[in-house]
Input
Amino acid sequence: MKMPKDKPHNENFASFETLGYKFRDPNLLRRALTHRSAIKDGEAAVTASNERLEFLGDAVLGMVVCERLFQRFPDRSEGELTRLKALLVNESTLSRLARETGLGELIIMSVEAAESGGRQKSSILADTFESLLGAIYLESGLTAVSGVVDEYLLPRLEALLSDEEIRNYKGELQELLQATGEEQPRYEVTEKVGPDHDKRFRVAVFWKDERLGGGWGTSKKQAEQRAARQALEKLKRSPH
Output
């Protein structure tokens, strides 16, 4: 993304390129970058925020990602494709991408919103990313949006699949085991070490009295995630 030297609303929007795309209509780009706080304070040169474009961009992004996943993973079930989409199209992933591309510095917002950390707020960053996609769709259609998704979003899929902070291993394990029986996986804390301010937990996951996996973590939730991950790896090597 080409970055401005000063705040974007003080620059010529016709010279901006965002997400590898150069807008022909600078007013459309300005609207896509306008947070509602700027409208309230009268700081924007337009009378509408990017909320309507965000609504459109969310739908377009979901459609493009679904099509890409459908083509890329022909053997995956509907449930698996839904999980893959959720990894890519969520506030955490979109806000990370927005931060990495410097999108926060381009957003037009009130002084108060900026001073309170609005340019780094995940919800604002993710919403602005979607509003830009909505604007790109209006100006150039699905092909242009697909180009952005292919360049910036899909390459993250493999990394996301191994990111335990995003991936829901417990949910995946439960769904897998539900297909073979009604009993739910059971998690037990088997060990605690360290002082209260720096405690670590070891959790084991059981199913039908069989220990499927275990893991350590600085919280019970993290340990459960790691136990579920180990269980999934075991079941994939030797189907239950």
Notes: The first strand starts at residue 17 and ends at 18. The beta strands are 17-18, 21-22, 186-193, 200-207, 210-217. The chain is about 50% helix and 10% strand.
